[in-house]
Amino acid sequence: MITTDILIIGAGPTGLFTVFEAGLLKLKCHLIDALPQPGGQCSEIYPKKPIYDIPAYPEILAGDLTHKLIEQSKQFEPGFTLGERAQTIDKQDDGTFIVTTNKGTKHHAKIVAIAGGLGSFEPRKPLIPNIADFEDKGVEYIIKEPEFYRDKKVVISGGGDSALDWAIFLSNIASEVTLIHRRNEFRGALDSVEKAQELKNLGKINIITPAEVKGILGTDKVTGVAVEKKGEDAFIIDTDHFIPLFGLSPKLGPIGDWGLEIEKNAIKVNNALDYQTNIPGIYAIGDVNTYPGKLKLILCGFHEATLMCQSAYKRIFPDKKYVMKYTTVGGVDGFDGTRKEAPKAVVKAIQ
Amino acid sequence: MQDVNLKITDRNGVTHDVIAPTDMAMNLMEVVRSYELAEEGTIGICGGMAMCASCQCYVKSDHELPEMSDDEDAMLAEAFNVEDNSRLGCQIQITPEINGLEVELAPES
Asked: Can you tell me the distance from the alpha carbon of A218 to that of A223, in angstroms, rounded to the nearest whole number?
């Protein structure tokens, strides 16, 4: 069991900055994120996009902002559970929480701060009526172990890098690879497109365009897919696996079932006070929350994180009095033993 | 200041006549959000960077719209419910040239 003072769900900019603000109050943080690396949508969706409204940065790339936030939080030694999604939450008799991920990792915390941004990024699923019936029975949205497909027939759909790359990779493993795309053009790296063309010419990949998978066949497991190609009658391809690769899409996910008050796909909080949700001890900060006048801006998330940490401190230490200090005055004591402070000037008496 | 008139059919099939300003650097997705024609959280998820297809719409009138950028084209290549007249609302700026534009919001996916 991982134990911490504040469990932060979401390792985007707001979650990462919470580590720093909590650290100033000597509170330890642990972060959970469904993505395999910290940074949230800044690092996952648009690392190369410039942001212009971060105070003191006339312009900063989203990926660079993430790196600087990680650097800033390091002195407070946050823990990370990455590549796992916070699944369930259980409030304990003493008011603390146990949060379990989809992979069974348990976290015990005094405070839970949801900084989930737009939610967890989940595979975008094609609109095929019976697709849910075949999930993990031949339909996979993510390729975890390529060897799983050895000597199997595989149909991949999608037109981006992921679909191209896996079609190329699996052509050496699977007995048959078919790549189906709705357009004739593929939007992947030039190398990948050329490689796929070469493999098609060699007969190692079957490419069908412009076409879409419209149905899945089978009883207990996938045995084939129904394909509609423009200008032709629908036809069936026998296959063992159907792998739709259409990128990721953000969803609120299991947090939506935690008994939190939700409004317009966001978590309602008390912004007049401390960004706490309707469940005492659970806060929501950043893009995931809503309140009158809410603005989904990174800088607003930073502000919310700061106030939330002050409230969390009072909740954890109700009898302690804390006086807020400027870092220019109090310095920063890292959990790693480092200390940063402004150099003291020596004042000598003037004779 | 010049306003333009738009016809936007929402995801329930209801057509709304809306007036949009041309001097506020708005795009069609933002107009839909400001008139609350789609539920918050279901449109403009990426904030208008052509990185999700939540603002996909079908262009019904024969207006000549600016050419698709590579980003928009790539996103529509991955999206669902895409038709020949699909565009991303976030990439359609509100300009005097689109006065009278008629669009229908694509289904949420």
From this structure: 5
